[in-house]
Amino acid sequence: DEPELWPCGYYTNGHVLVDAEKMSKSKGNFLMMNETVEKYTADATRFACADAGDSLDDANFSRETADSAILSLTTEDQWITETMASPDLRSNDERNFMDKVLVNETNRLIAAATTAFENMQFRE
What we know:
The protein has 124 residues and is mostly helical. Helix content is 51%, strand content 6%.
């Protein structure tokens, strides 16, 4: 009912590799999406799928990438929580030079990520 929310495009792959081996029930490395999300979380699964490939080569889902994403996201969440609870944070809205540099760099990276994602270049 909302075509503006539909994907603009998609990729298909001949095979999906798991840890650089062809995914196969007989090898025991067959992954179902719902099981993968339960094991690694939705966010870590997105990281691993985005890293799996953005070319015509076979996609490689790396369990190590998913595990690493869990650790990175958890560490970042803890750091943000601790930082936001710190009594040392400034209470005024005045921005200094380094605040402006951070905002500028963040905006530059958002624009670069948007361009890469629009072109389905997830490893950029």
